Amino acid sequence: MASTEEAVRTERSALQELGRRHLWMHFTRMSAFDDDHEIPIITRGEGCYVYDEHGNRYLDGLSALFCVNIGHGRADIAQAGADQAKELGFFTNWSYAHPRAIELAARIASLAPGDLNRVFFTSGGSEAVESALKLARQYHKLTGKPNKTKVIARDIAYHGTSLGALSATGITSLREPFEPLTPGGCHVPNTNTFRLPHGLSAADLADTIATRIEFEGPDTVGAVILEPVQNSGGCFTPPEGYFQRVREICDEYKVLMISDEVICAWGRLGEWFGAQRYDYEPDIITTAKGLTSAYAPMGAVIVSDRIAEPFMHGTNTFTHGFTFAGHPVCAAVALANLEAMEREGIIENVRNNEGALRGMLDSLRDIPIVGDVRGAGYFQAIELVKDKDTLESFSDEESETLLRGFLSGELYRRGLICRADDRGDPVVQLSPPLIAGPPQFEEIEAVLRPVLTEAGERMRAHAA
Ligand SMILES: Cc1ncc(COP(=O)(O)O)c(C=O)c1O
User: Fold this and answer.
1) pLDDT tens digits along 361-393
2) Rounded-to-integer distance, Cα 297 and Cα 290, Å
3) Taking CB atoms and a 6 Å cutoff, what residues make up the pocket around ligand 1?
4) Any idea what DSSP says for residue 162?
């Protein structure tokens, strides 16, 4: 008879087999899982840490995917969902409401900037962006400007994968397999001030939006969608005055300003919303992820009174919806999450420790491969360069060797989950749970320093 340990091992390998045979993982090369490479199966979490099926512990330096803001393993947040499921497991927001959706909408409105008081729920971030883009189109139709259908976004920005949201996403490799896309997506330079486009200064970046609106024809442009800090490319922060100028441009051309805060809200930047950190008032905020700290899937489109107003009269209706959006269990979880965040001073923790996180990352600048460190709050990136003096970046083939051939696996092997990404130039991104502090930053440094040093040595040997 097999010992308990053997039985567990057999069961674990069965899970690997079943995963390989049946699970279709997202944005994942399924062929990468062979005899030498297991699917990383995460089985439980506690605070800033998660554990895999073998019991190995990892520091979750990415909050799973920029979303477990309050940390893993919170029985109280789970309990809020369970209690709600017993009371009312589900009812829809199509024609009906339920108490948790109403309470959560009011709570979100009380936290959101300016007059963003109307909340349309979704089940995630792509649905939120999709809904915001459709809302912008219908708003312009209702207010007599039916041709304002285009959306301006930024190069390399990620706004989701559904076909409408994908037209705003500015990453060629994600768009190209699905062409032709929904028409109307236009792109302008992002705020990568480490590598400014030729001939542009940081102060010019906002005006590229005005130039593009003029180029497209102001009567055809309905919305601009921007993240407060752009994730893809590696945490591009805005130059001074950028969003204030974008606001002026949107007002001048009667274009809706959408702040895509799927990552940047709920404390990630040390405020409830990224727009508050950079002091601007968008017309619409799209959000998801940290709203529930990912204990349940939920997103939201938060709309200003001015933009919602035409929908509130007579037979006018926002002709759009999703069965599960505003699900009572998710809403109860979100309410418990926001309450706990406030009670426990989670956002204050980010403000108090942002300097320490950044200081630790800046201290890695002496490593030859570290070209730049940037970001805000608990949302930071390290850009890796081939040559520190010229800032030359790695070729696509070199990035592949660097990121997939070494870094991603080695960081994970040493117990750190973070993101090694090359949707722009190669970066390592860190976005730890908002409860993290100096002990976790020390652990991150203890992994990053040797691994980045070795990565640089390997790439020099690779080039030789
Ligand atoms: C800024 C932004 N918008 C939209 C999305 C899409 O969200 P989801 O993956 O929940 O559909 C993401 C996901 O990371 C995001 O970062």
Assistant:
1) 999 999 999 999 999 999 999 999 999 999 999
2) 10
3) 124-126, 129, 158-160, 227, 231, 260, 262-263, 288
4) S
Ligand 1 center to residue 124 CA distance, Å?
Answer: 7
Q: How far apart are CA 269 and CA 350, in angstroms?
A: 8
Contacting residues for 315 by C-beta, under 8 A, at least 6 apart: none
The candidate with the shortest Cα–Cα distance to 149, out of 214, 222, 88, is 222
- Nearest Cα residue to 259 out of 116, 149, 123: 116
Please write the tens of the pLDDT for every residue from 159-215: 999 999 999 999 999 999 999 999 999 999 999 999 998 899 999 999 999 999 999
Q: Hey, is 65 helix, strand or coil?
A: helix
CA 351 from centre of chain: 19
- pTM of the predicted model as reported, rounded to 2 decimal places: 0.96
Q: Which residues, in sequence order, are bridge partners of residue 224?
A: 152, 257
Nearest by Cα to 431 from 198, 224, 303, 262: 262
How far CA 96 is from CA of 33, 91, 99, in Å, comes to 46, 8, 10
Residue where the block lists tokens 């009670």: 343
pLDDT at 448 over 70: yes
Which pair of tokens denotes residue 37? 């490479």
Question: Which of 63, 126, 133 most suits a substitution to test ligand 1, by most atoms within 8 Å of the C-beta?
Answer: 126
Alpha carbon distance 261, 412 (integer Å): 27
Q: Are 421 and 403 in contact (CB under 8 A)?
A: yes
Residue that is written with structure tokens 């912008």 in the block: 136
User: Token match 């017309």: residue?
Assistant: 283
Tokens 């009906």, located at residue? 96
Measure the CA–CA gap between 128 and 291, rounded to whole angstroms: 12
Question: For 114, left (φ over 0), alpha (ψ -120 to 50), or beta?
Answer: left
- Mutate-to-test residue for ligand 1 from 62, 122, 158, 171, highest number of ligand atoms within 8 A of CB: 158
Ligand 1 atom nearest 160 alpha carbon:
6
